[in-house]
Amino acid sequence: MQFDEILKKTEYTESNKPNLKDYESAYNSFDWNDDGYSRLEWLSDGGLNNAYESIDKHVAKGFGDKLSMIWIGKNGEEEKYTYSDFKEESDKFAQVMIKLGMEKGDRVFIFMDRLPELYFAAMGILKAGGIIAPLFSAFGPDPVKDRMLDAGATYLITSPDLRNKISSIIPDIKTLKNIVVINKDNRQKESLVKGDLDYYELMKKVKSSEFSIVNTSQYDFAIMHYTSGSTGKPKGVLHRHQAVVQQLLTGHWALDLRPGDMYFCTADPGWVTGTSYGMIAPWTNGVTQIIYEGGFGASAWYEIIEKYKVDVWYTAPTAIRLLMRAGEDVVKKYDLSSLRFIGSVGEPLNPEAVVWGNRNYKMPIHDNWWQTETGAIMCANFSSNKIKPGSMGKPIPGVTMGILDDEYNEIETDKSGILAVRPGWPSQMYAYWQQDEMYNSRFKKGWYITGDQASCDKEGYFWFQGRADDVINTAGHLVGPFEVESALIEHPAVAEAGVIGKPDPIAMEIVKAFVTLNPDYEQTNDLRRELIRFAREKLSAGVAPREIDFLDTMPKTRSGKIMRRLLKARELGEPEGDISTLEDD
Ligand code: PRX
To answer: Which of 54, 113, 180, 585 has its CA at 20 to 30 Å from residue 324's CA atom?
Structure first.
């Protein structure tokens, strides 16, 4: 199908109109016929479905025998699935969900480690018209509860241990109809909680291995991810099936994916990189994906690249800094010559990392920039571009990015300002779930305001400068200070809490909290440790503060808002700036 035909199917409002000409020429110039199995297809009735584009399309075109996924378990297990196997498993799970009564638009939460069944379930839910809302499996009960309550979750797909971890909050989710539990290989001893459903039992009962995809259009909702802001609880970012257009294209343009490639993305599907580039972009491009259940490990990762001859590797700056720390000798033990392209996202990639990559991997690491809200890569160092170490590259075709002053007017090159994007790119978020005001506040004078500060040089390369808000980026994961503050003040000792990001050489920032105590509590090291433990249990180790300082009084504005900016300036020994609104002690 040519791009103009795709456009005819697409309705855009004036404020949501992509610069379609650019997409059109780019899409049509893509040599889709050389390998035949990567182009975008539509459902026979004119609909569009991410799961069809990712999996079924390849089977329909005769590539069902190609490998879609190689799963490497944390105990050394290995499982291989062709596109046909994947289609069958996801078709079956789609039927399970329909049988359970799932309706189009239902929010189905997936709270799981990286197991093959997570991916079968996700694709099955999409085929059956549901919205997948994946959650990071390290989360504690509080973040899970906040997100499921906010979204009105109707189903939860999880594993016995994780179900157990959050059992206290389950009765609070009144909208929840069923919990489907996956106990892969009976790894876990927990028995099924009364009322929960066993995944394998449900799958066994499905008679047909074929499912006819529910009629989804490009406007139907597909994926929801929660992201943090400076204020309030995280917001549900809602994406539509049409995001697949940009995910497919950027998979090819920005990550250089080609059908048949071996691809290794280290991101977890609990975060947007793990769905856009850990599911949709790679599979729509017809690659074989390595899904590694384990976490970071220099030797483990290199071993995977060597053993499976990985062509394209997509990872994050914190991981790259850890690899640098693991040293050059470890790299030399492995044959990494299969690598053709390395990409990085989520945080600024330091120029030294690019240089280090050049020396050790014999190729540069290509930084690219995007957000949960953008749904797909917006700005990238393409394989064809000259790389300027430290820059996040240039906008993808069809995307216009700008640097604005405080009045939202464009400013000159080389000057730092607000990073903004012209609305209308195909994978643009549709909404913050039930938070229209917040959504609208992100659009000013015809621009989408990203929340980042950046500059653009004369050659059109963008340079990240920092966040414009209080959101903390720790190891590539955004943490909203409000969420951490809310957890801390639930402890009886804590009167007030202010949370900031403190610079860190590896994780970029760590979460640091300042607290004042209620009367009768003393500022002791034991209490400090107790508060960290308390927050870890509620939130997760990654989100909880790594450091806590006690204060006698909390700096606040006269209207009572905690001045995080001031806490940060004091922590860093920087000038305190304008403190005219500071409340008198
Ligand atoms: O601040 C920017 C940072 O991560 C934010 C987006 O985070 P999230 O919505 O969780 O999406 C993660 C998937 C990309 C951005 O607003 N960020 C992302 N990429 C880069 C970056 N900061 C600097 N350089 C990057 N390449």
So the answer is: 113
The pLDDT value recorded for residue 14 is 45
Structural contact between residues 244 and 278, judged by C-beta atoms closer than 8 angstroms = no
**CA distances, 547 to each of 140, 391, 433, 508, 527 (Å):** 19, 31, 32, 15, 12
Distance CA 566, CA 518 (A): 22
Ligand 1 centre to CA of 463 (Å) is 12
Report the interhelical angle of 525-538 vs 481-488 (nearest 10°).
120
Angle at 145 between CA 140 and CA 151, to 5 degrees: 135
* Ramachandran angles phi, psi of 326, nearest 5°: -65, -25
**CA dist., res. 76 & res. 292, Å (int):** 10
- In the block, residue with structure tokens 């929010």: 107
Query: Which residue(s) pair with 292 in the sheet?
Result: 72
CB 473 less than 6 A from any atom of ligand 1: yes
Q: Which of 261, 258, 276, 279 has its CA nearest to residue 32?
A: 258
Q: Which residue has tokens 């196997």?
A: 85
Distance in angstroms (rounded) separating the CA atoms of residues 299 and 294: 12
Closest CA to 156 of 139, 192, 132, 129: 132
Q: For ligand 1, atom 4, which residue shows the shortest CA distance?
A: 346
Chain segment 66-91, per-residue pLDDT in tens: 999 999 999 999 999 999 999 999 99
Mention every residue, 6+ apart, whose C-beta is less than 8 A from residue 275.
122, 132, 134, 223, 225, 269
**Which residue ranges form the domains of the chain, and what is each CATH number?**
472-572 (3.30.300.30)
**Residue 520: phi, psi to the nearest 5?**
80, 0
Given this model, what pLDDT does residue 37 score? 53
DSSP characters over 162-197: HHHHTGGGGGG-TT--EEEE--GGG---PPPPTT-E
**Predicted pLDDT of residue 558:** 86
517 phi and psi angles, rounded to 5 deg = -105, 155
**For residue 278, what is the DSSP state?**
I
Atom number in ligand 1 closest to CA 476: 4
Q: pTM score, two decimals?
A: 0.93
Strands 417-421 and 431-432: unpaired
